[in-house]
């Protein structure tokens, strides 16, 4: 394989290339902010060490990578270029243990419902503005 080849066979979730004036800048994807928010919601009096946060960040990144790759494979089998919510749901079923599957599905359903409500609210506001 040619090392100068720009095509990658796998996506590295730890770095994302972004465009900035025609040059690519790699930035590290981190879930630290979200992990701290969840930790404060569950145990507001406790703190989390940097080492523990790094370990959790690694676990979440690895899990995200496994779910994303499995969802991509499912979409590829269906001969679709786009991931659908159904692909992610089935990937979670394949990757996660039963209790986490239930929690993930409930959270995903809630997020999709909230998104659809937002779209409907914006549509109603546009229609109301057009009437006036």
From TrEMBL:
GO terms for cellular component: nucleosome. CDD domains: HFD_H2B (cd22910). SMART domains: H2B. One of its GO terms (molecular function) is structural constituent of chromatin. Pfam families: Histone. Residues 18-94 form the Core Histone H2A/H2B/H3 domain. SUPFAM superfamilies: Histone-fold. PANTHER family: HISTONE H2B. Belongs to the histone H2B family. This is Histone-fold-containing protein. The lineage of its organism: Eukaryota, Fungi, Fungi incertae sedis, Mucoromycota, Mucoromycotina.
